[in-house]
Amino acid sequence: MAAHYLEFERPIGELEAKIEELSKLSETAGGQAFDAEIDALRARVADLRRETYAHLDGWQKTQVSRHPGRPHFVDYAAGLIEEFVELRGDRKFADDQAIVGGMGRFRGQPVMVIGQEKGHDTTTRIKHNFGAARPEGFRKAVRLMDLADQFGLPVLSFVDTGGAYPGLGSEERGVAEAIARATERCLSLGTPMICAIIGEGMSGGAIGIAAANKVLILEHSIYSVISPEGCASILLRDGALARGAAMAMKITAQDLIDFKIIDRIVAEPVGGAHADPAAAIDATGDAIEAELTPLLALGPDELRRQRAERFLAIGR
């Protein structure tokens, strides 16, 4: 598969194209004719990627958070959860595959896992509705949290959505009420809940499964009440101003930890999670384990109190 380069990565892409060209010439010429030039270019690419990713602005991080090669929830489930058993349906209307969940073991600990899945190609994107959940998705999440509470299972949630689905059927079936019920259920859980924002976490579609004891975010992920495009269209009356909106909205991990909206930033590999998905997944697992371990010692009332105090403190 051809590499996908973001707008700001074009200089890196041009250098890697030169490396590929020289590599082919070297094979044709035989021997090690261009090895020194290739090694020098590779070192330059590594330096340029490191420098570029150390100084990303809000709009560039938005692009990285949506990168098609970034690991999705199904990748995190496969990499971190053993014996995963998917549980489907909301027992009211349908099974919404924009939100996927089930039981499994996280590093030996039985857990309930819930995540938003966008899909990685045309077929899976349609199946998962691009990660835009309908009411039945949030009602499924509530059902799974009910089960987690009943059996004393910690809940791990993975957020990656541009927002809940705003279509007519979704509105008719009460998407706002479903998001509110899911948020309420997060807050009332008597078991530990850890949320990881692995891509973009936009609007109520994100908070419906993110009102956790601890909220983690990957280094180049974003989290906000609205997407930059939505903000530009509604407040600035011009969707073309999304770049400026992204930088003004303070939606990056570094901004959010300063505001105490999130609790921990998970470092990504140089070049973003899409550059080394396995390393990004392992780092996220380590962060989840570090946050989950002390919460396992707390009782239901203490967990609810900690969660309430965490969210009430935002903005004070």
Provide structural commentary.
The chain is α/β, with parallel strands linked by helices and 316 residues long. The protein folds into 2 domains: 48 residues; 251 residues, 2-enoyl-CoA Hydratase, Chain A, domain 1. It contains 14 helices and 8 strands. Strands 1, 2, 3, 4, 5, 6, 7 and 8 form an 8-stranded mixed sheet that branches. β5, α9 and β6 form a beta-alpha-beta unit. α3 crosses α11 and α6 packs parallel to α8. The mean pLDDT is 94.
Tally of structural domains: 2
The end-to-end span amounts to 48 Å
Radius of gyration: 21 Å
Number of helices: 14
Write out key terms for the chains shown.
316 residues; alpha/beta; 2-enoyl-CoA Hydratase, Chain A, domain 1; 2 domains; 8-stranded mixed beta sheet; 14 helices; 8 strands; 16% strand
